[in-house]
Amino acid sequence: MTEQDRRNSPYTYSDAGVSIAAGNALVNAIKPLVRATRRPGADAEIGGFGGFFDLRAAGYEDPLLVAANDGVGTKLKLAIDSGRHDTVGIDLVAMCVNDLIVQGAEPLFFLDYFATAKLDPGIAQQVIAGIAHGCRIAGCALIGGETAEMPGMYAEGDYDLAGFAVGAVERAQALTGTKVQAGDVLLGLGSSGIHSNGYSLVRRLAKDKGWKLDRPALFDQDKLLIDLLMEPTRIYVRSLLPLIRSSRIAALAHITGGGLLENIPRVLPEGLHATVDADLWPQPRLMAFLQAQGAIEPEEMARTFNCGIGMVAVVRAADVDEVTEKLAAAGETVFRIGGIAEGERGCTVRGSTETWSARGDWSSTHAG
User: Fold this and answer.
1) Considering only CA atoms, which of 80, 111, 363, 88 is closest in space to residue 213?
2) Side-chain half-sphere CA neighbours of 112 within 13 A
3) What is the pLDDT of residues 303-340, one digit of tens each?
4) pTM over the 0.85 mark
């Protein structure tokens, strides 16, 4: 066909690079994955214009709804470049539902947004399978989503993800920071790795230092470096929810962008200051590797990475042993990392030889 014939022939959406048939085929392919996330209140069927959730069927009497949204950031680029698409969906769910549990809310349902230049059904199905897996871990239903094929918006082979989660908490059990008192103890829950923050720096180091991602890590010969970097974000919902409902937790801080310094103050009322002793838990070897490779200053580490602590729980001193025991029984690694005292709202992190502090306005709802 000549160029003139092409211009004179009828135009179609597929000529512009968008395949409706591929999108429909993907929806049909993922329906079993979605059905596997069913829970009381949601039948987890997709294909309509919206998803329903029945709060009464979920057993709530006087609920507050809590909503959160997030993405995976440039960890996606690492997934794309390495061809590892099966776990970033877990990261997507984790970043949202962990932000719900810190309010005391049980995640109820989840929706995803998958955008790409040209839909590759195989890759999309891997990503959505990870999302469904994350939803099962968190106990929430995947009730809908959107797949957007947008030629010209993304480079070939690239895609982006966004997640949206809604949870509920009985009004009296909501964690708003008002329950925190001077004398409370900080318990740190171990992370599964870098989680989903700081990957622009990780990727910069990988490029500048010439890391061989498909080879065993220098600090762990039993695992490939790429596997350690792609370890999905830990989901803390099931271990924390029973303790929230039994009023054993005063507040929770999800340690995302901004690290310990910036995230702990977000759950403190005015007049209270958190102090963290970084010598009270072992620095993970992956974190030590990153710090050494980039000659990263300790304060920069404390603001960029979770440093091995993915969630911080504020508990009464009298409840520390019970809470620690129950979290450990639920599979968490728990460290007593500091406490709360009277002072200017903020956080101080102390190491063996240095001290870093953060004070300011943490009224923003953005997680960083």
Assistant:
1) 80
2) 33
3) 899 999 999 999 999 999 999 999 999 999 999 999 99
4) yes
pLDDT tens for residues 143-195?
988 999 999 999 999 999 999 999 999 999 999 989 999 999 999 999 999 99
Beta-carbon neighbour count of residue 312 at 10 Å? 26
pLDDT value of position 22: 66
From residue 236, how far is each of 25, 186, 308, 345 by CA, in Å?
Answer: 34, 16, 14, 26
Please calculate the CA angle 8-120-10 and round it to the nearest 5 degrees: 10
- pLDDT score for 363: 45
Q: In the block, which residue shows the tokens 């839909």?
A: 119
CB neighbour list of residue 227: distance below 8 Å, 6 or more residues apart: none
Q: How far apart are CA 110 and CA 191, in angstroms?
A: 23
- Six token digits for residue 289: 């590797």
Tokens representing residue 12 in the block? 């179609």
pLDDT over threshold 80, residue 10: no
DSSP state of 354: -
Tell me whether strands 346-350 and 272-277 are parallel, antiparallel or unpaired: parallel
Stated as kind and residue range, the H or E segment containing 141 is: strand 141-149
Query: How far are the Cα atoms of 18, 100, 147, 244, 331 from residue 106, in angstroms, in the given order?
Result: 38, 7, 26, 10, 19
Mean per-residue pLDDT of the chain: 89
